Amino acid sequence: MTKITPAFQWIVSGVERPCLDYQQLEQWICQVADAHNRIVRSVSYIFCDDEKILEVNKEFLDHHYYTDVITFDDCVGRLLRGDIFISLNTVHSNALDLGVDPQRELLRVIIHGILHLCGINDKGPGEREVMEAHENEALEMYDRLTNSTNC
After folding, report:
1. DSSP assignment, residue 60?
2. DSSP for 3-48?
3. 45-81 b/e (C-beta count within 10 Å ≥ 16 → b)
4. Exposed / middle / buried, residue 15 (Cβ in 10 Å: 0-12, 13-18, 19+)
5. Which of 1, 59, 135, 146 lies 20 to 30 Å from 106, alpha-carbon distance?
6. Is there a contact between 31 and 39 (Cβ–Cβ < 8 Å)?
7. Which CATH number does the domain 7-145 belong to among 3.30.365.10, 3.30.470.30, 3.20.10.10, 3.40.390.30?
């Protein structure tokens, strides 16, 4: 059996690149995917500002509001492929509103997009609670992987 090498892209649009251990993030993302019987093939993260995510939300989803994350799913079978837009502005303001560490909230949003690619939804009745449970489980995996010490 041929081993699939995951491909990640970390792109910035109108913002500074977050100070994260990207190698560790990629390892974590692959572990979370594996826990959901998926394999990371090609995932692009686009870190942007509120104006960019609003533009993407309007153009592709006909939604006229800000959001923290938008996931475009291009998966084939068990192979995860997709683009994940993350508004660093909204992540930061959500962290302040929730009284949580902005870095931790960013990790939650990063894995939220992957969980969508794994087939977990959060819009229907009871789905938000299921998504949150999977996010929390993934964050526990991250904590086991690292001391959470970044730059």
Report:
1. H
2. PPPPEEEEEEESSPPP---HHHHHHHHHHHHHHTT-EEEEEEEEEE
3. bbbbbbebbbebbeeeeeeeeebbbbbbeebeeebbb
4. middle
5. 59
6. no
7. 3.40.390.30
Please state the domain extents for the chain: 7-145
Tokens of 68: 């923290």
Give residue-wise pLDDT tens across range 2-59.
788 999 999 999 999 999 999 999 999 999 999 999 999 999 999 999 999 999 999 9
Q: What is the DSSP letter of 99?
A: T
Q: Each residue of 56-83: pLDDT tens digit?
A: 999 999 999 999 999 999 999 999 999 9
- Spatial contact of 69 and 113, defined as CB atoms under 8 Å apart: yes
Can you tell me the distance from the alpha carbon of 105 to that of 86, in angstroms, rounded to the nearest whole number? 11
| Residue 139 in tokens | 């964050």
In total, the chain counts a number of residues equal to 151
